[in-house]
Amino acid sequence: MSLPIAVLISGTGSNLKAILQAIEAGRCDARVAAVLSDRSKAKGLELARERRIPTEVVRLKAYEDRGAWDAALAERVASFDPGLVVLAGFMKIVGPAMIAAFPSRIVNVHPALLPSFPGTDGPGDAVAAGVRVSGCTVHVVDAGVDTGPILAQAAVPVLPGDDRDALHARIQRLEHRLLPGVVHAVASGALELSDPPRWRDAPGADAELLYPAPQ
Amino acid sequence: MSLPIAVLISGTGSNLKAILQAIEAGRCDARVAAVLSDRSKAKGLELARERRIPTEVVRLKAYEDRGAWDAALAERVASFDPGLVVLAGFMKIVGPAMIAAFPSRIVNVHPALLPSFPGTDGPGDAVAAGVRVSGCTVHVVDAGVDTGPILAQAAVPVLPGDDRDALHARIQRLEHRLLPGVVHAVASGALELSDPPRWRDAPGADAELLYPAPQ
Fold first, then answer.
1. Inside any domain, residue B48
2. Domain-located, residue B177
3. DSSP secondary structure string, A12-75?
């Protein structure tokens, strides 16, 4: 049976779209059980509605404080009973209630090769640092910011003349292949989200998902 | 005229060998003017002697303190009038006298994707951190440890089951292609060692040198 996942977004949902397309193409054995957002205007919600996937908006401002918001978000996500929670361009830090509700079951995609360039502007920080290689990281979400165990990474070149946006676009194209690959690896059992996480097989058929060539 | 370089080593000199082979194959327009070491037993000195390249040993213990050693090393390197100083597995930190004698003209190869994992054990630290991508970096040497401007980087996968030595071996194979590539880029003028350094051309013919595929 396909793995039910909840996808959390804040913006256009390009990573959600990549997951949906991978599922529809038979490359990702998951089912998007719900899409949740902290922003009612997140364009990605439309992608879900088009497919009659349930959506929810849980706005920080609707709650007394961050803790109350975090608890409400955990409650709403849990109502869909997902086997995996995917932060796909979700721009808020999830709190202790979320992490307690889904221990080692929340993954995030970050536009840098962690541990380099955590935080809100991985591509901008990479360009400013003058690195020649950057990439993206899918990791388990823990209490820190971009500090949880790394599940998968992929590299892209930083080309002379790249600005933040040019690099970010190149990284995102890779995210759109890496993130569905990791969801599929969890769904298929190739990747166990134990603590620490464990790849059960050396990359064979999955190698292209795990180490996609930059395009 | 080929760029005269001084190569500093501490061990087997595998990166020196890669440079010599690239020169002999016509892929690197440089000439090794001298090989210097802090260890009289560095096996790489033999590679130089076989080719009748001058060698020097400048041992830290032969001097009163680090400053005197650094000044002596700078004096001995300068006697060969190199256009570029290459630290190729040189396990000592060069000091202010070296940096003042060759401003922005000393490059080092480091077995990690800086700014991740500076210091003495890049491969071991990468394995311990659980990253899935690592690599190597050629950078300009400044007063810090592995902090100078980055010139080139290349990435390798970290495979499940890799230990420090397995990863280090994979990284070194890439170093042996990246470092001669950077030396050639300096020799050909494609890379200007100004402050900050500047690639004069977007990677065209040099792309394979700058972004070699892992093997």
1. yes
2. yes
3. S-HHHHHHHHHHHTTS--EEEEEEEES-TT-THHHHHHHTT--EEE--GGGSSSHHHHHHHHHH
- Closest approach of chain B CAs to the CA of A157, in angstroms? 7
> pLDDT tens-digit profile of A91-141?
999 999 999 999 999 999 999 999 999 999 999 999 999 999 999 999 999
Give CA–CA dist B173/A75, Å, rounded: 50
Q: Which residues of A touch B137 (CB under 8 A)?
A: 132
Locate B188 and state its tokens: 């050909």
Domains contained in chain B, number: 2
Q: Quick check: is B41 in a domain? A: yes
- Does the residue A143 lie in any domain? no
B167: containing domain: 109-135+149-215
In this complex, do B150 and A131 lie within 8 Å of one another by their Cβ atoms? yes
Whether residues B113 and B213 fall in one domain: yes
CATH number (domain holding residue B25)? 3.40.50.170
DSSP A60: G
Indicate which residues of A carry an active-site annotation: 110
| Global confidence as pTM | 0.89
